[in-house]
Amino acid sequence: SNNVTLFFRNSPYRVTSDLTVEYGATLTIETGVQIYFDTGVGLKVRGTLQAIGNEFAHIQMLPYQQQLNYDDEFPKFRLIDGATVRDGRLQVLFRDRWRSVCTMVTNWTSIDTSTACRSMGYSDGGFLKWHLRNNDTYPLAMPRPDCHPGANTLWDCPGFADPNAIRLSENLCQGEDDLGLICWGPPTFQGWAKHWKGVQIFSSPYTYVSADPDHVAVQKESLSRMEYVDILYAGYDGSTKNTTAALWIEGVAPLMNGIRIERSARDGLYVYEPSGPILIANSTFSWNRGHGIAVDNTTDGRVFINMTRVENNYGDGRGISGAHRGKDVFPGNRRDYTNIPFAEEKPRADICQQHSLPSQYFFPHLLMAHLGNGTLYDPAVPPSCWIAISLPPRLQYTYSLQFVNIRNLNPPTTSSTHLVVCDATEDRNACALERLRIPIRHEIYPQTVSL
């Protein structure tokens, strides 16, 4: 809970149990420091992390436990375009490249799909869905693997037994969708003893900085920084006996420059619900058993990756998914953030109660409209939910309207709800020129629109 500095003169350090940086505290790691972590333990940051090395003397976070006969080979089969490496599009490493699989309008048997999952180190699995065809050259056409129940991998099946008989042709697939599988069961990878947990940053403190030269908008910037840090052989959580990302971040991500993450037991970098831009430069994410970089449930969407190598990962190189559940901005639905001061911002105004914003406020504005159950509404009178926002004059900016949570419990057959965007009049709550009329339906997110 106090500020701590790890000095180079005392390096190396050994960590035998989870190390936590509490809110309000700062952990500073000097250039060239080496930290060795025991199996399954890691660094958890709720405060501020200042790990700033340099190009010639990296900060190194390494496993303490060494393991003989460590298996660093990846299976020759993998699943991509999924949430994890346990589900997604089946691909085969065949003749020096990864190839998606089409079945030529033939369904694989449950024995075939189970064998495919065993080929990837899982105990069982099944069909998930058909993935839309990518513009691949020479996909692998495999209508019938004909696996027997005792097969350990697809290479033991008659359909894969003769490599020269495996057909590679787009003409055979004719644009057919690719085979998608889901696997379950404990993995057979036995290298956990060498892996430590990794670095986890939860809702680290941040500040606001200007996002443009005209000072129209601001963006969040983390107080933490990670520069020239090596994170090797992480990704195993000893408390849950499960895999995790080598660098797990929730909230505003720190600036990452010169990061090297290799040989993680799962994802290299995983960022969940970032509420600010992500900046990655001069970094390497390679040979991880999950995705290289994964960004999940982002409402900001800005990910800047510059001069960075993302290669030879078992899952996707980079994966970004937009917000799929939205912010809990409504009363009574917000998560308990009592002990997490920097977790989630509150709306600036409920436009059913407040109809203007102070002129000194910067963009972006988080607004909400909440009409409680039983509220009387008369279409003959001006609307009760509205707000007038003055845009800075003479500045050539595009203003976007983004939806982060939609709840409309009115019966869709007997009522309709719309968000109207228009040029305001002197009456403020009346329209001079209607620009947009957006229907509001329960849990259906309209696309972002620009004004």
Outline the structure in words.
This protein is mainly β and 451 residues long. The chain folds into three domains: 4-68 and 191-322; 77-184, Mac-2 Binding Protein (Roll); 347-451, no CATH class. It is 4% helix and 34% strand. It has a seven-stranded parallel beta sheet with strand order 1-4-7-19-24-27-30, with no helix packed on it. A seven-stranded parallel beta sheet has the order 2-5-8-20-25-28-31, with no helix packed on it. The longest helix is centred in the first third of the chain and has 10 residues, at 110-119. It starts with a strand and ends with a strand. Residues 328-342 have low confidence and may be disordered. Pfam families: SRCR. One of its GO terms (biological process) is cell-cell junction maintenance. One of its GO terms (cellular component) is membrane. Disulfide bonds join 147-157.
Describe this protein with a few key phrases.
single chain, 451 residues, mainly beta, Mac-2 Binding Protein, 3 domains, 7-stranded parallel β-sheet, 3 helices, 38 strands, globular
Strand and helix map with partners:
Blueprint: E1 4-6, E2 13-15, E3 19-21, E4 26-29, E5 34-37, E6 42-45, E7 48-52, E8 59-63, E9 77-80, E10 87-93, E11 98-102, H1 110-119, E12 124-131, E13 140-141, H2 158-161, E14 167-168, H3 170-173, E15 178-184, E16 198-202, E17 206-210, E18 218-222, E19 225-227, E20 229-232, E21 236-237, E22 242-243, E23 247-250, E24 255-257, E25 260-262, E26 269-272, E27 278-281, E28 284-286, E29 293-298, E30 303-306, E31 309-311, E32 318-322, E33 349-350, E34 367-368, E35 400-401, E36 418-424, E37 431-439, E38 449-450
Parallel strand pairs: 1-4, 2-5, 3-6, 4-7, 5-8, 6-16, 7-19, 8-20, 11-13, 16-23, 19-24, 20-25, 23-26, 24-27, 25-28, 26-29, 27-30, 28-31, 29-32, 33-34
Antiparallel strand pairs: 9-10, 10-11, 10-15, 12-15, 13-14, 17-18, 21-22, 35-38, 36-37
